[in-house]
Amino acid sequence: MSKKQYAFYPGCSSQKGASASNFLTSIGVMCEKLDIQLNEIPDWNCCGASIGYGEGGELPRLVLSARNLALAERELPGQEMVSVCPACWLSSRETVDRLHESESLLAETNEALKEAGLTLKNEVKQRHMVEVLIEDIGWEGMKKPVVKPLEGLKFAGYVGCQTNRPFGIAGESFENPQYLDKMVEMVGAEPVKYDQKVTCCGGALAFSEPDKSQAQIRQIVESAYDHGADMIVTPCQLCQANVEIYQSEINKKKGTKFNMPVVYYSQLMTVAYGGDAKQAGLDGQLIRAEQLEKIASKK
Questions:
Q1: Running DSSP on this structure, what letter comes out for residue 114?
Q2: For the chain, which domains are there?
Q3: Is pTM, for the whole model, over 0.85?
Q4: Rounded to a whole number, what is the distance in angstroms from the first to the last CA of the chain?
Q5: Rounded (10°) CA dihedral 280, 165, 50, 131
Q6: Where are the alpha helices (DSSP H) in the chain?
Q7: For residue range 150-202, what is the model confidence (pLDDT) as tens digits?
């Protein structure tokens, strides 16, 4: 079977040595099992999601993403651009939409891109990896490589904000998206009813107003415990980091005993597809996903 090929934008947090490099490890194994080939965009730059809404204005923010799109057009012609990071996906999607809406803004963007020897036609379709899995591979296609069903495990599907608003995954409810629950079922585990699946993790407040951010994280984790989950699963690097890292801080401040693993959907799929703990990036967890590691160790 010929592989489906995509221009791949990994984003800053998933690159080698970064905070979510284990996510990219599991993405690679998952894609190999599904005959997906991700061709990394050469010389890509940060999308600007973390700083792009500062005082620089709209044009510099759009140009950051436009440069990546222009590189994809030139270096990987005809391939759709795929992101695994929700923030990167939003930045690129917004750029594509804004530049389609305004010829003058596209002209200004291209004037800036001239400095880098680039021109953007704005013909590249920008997609999230979850869209590729659902729309191009399909649920039956994703289920086919499962050799180690995650039987007996219960997961709270925590979607968060950025893969849900403003664009969302086609066909999904903004209030109660189901795709993470379906992914959990697809790998043989049980999705729990979860009332925090689209709550913000407070990522933007983590440093400026940590008490507010940690109050939101506490609700997310407590609800997972209350609904019987063994772990939380998410598509978002920022959600994963916040909800995992700050559990110990909340324990110190509030006397709780949180120790809830927070994993990525690709890690579930990699283990279910026969990958070991290292291939699934489970060695990169701050809170060990021991039950998942146990299944991964089975021969």
A1: G
A2: 4-128 (1.20.1050.140), 148-296 (3.40.50.11810)
A3: yes
A4: 27
A5: 40
A6: 21-33, 58-75, 86-101, 103-113, 129-131, 138-143, 179-186, 210-226, 237-245, 247-254, 265-272, 290-296
A7: 999 999 999 998 888 766 787 788 889 999 999 999 999 999 999 999 999 98
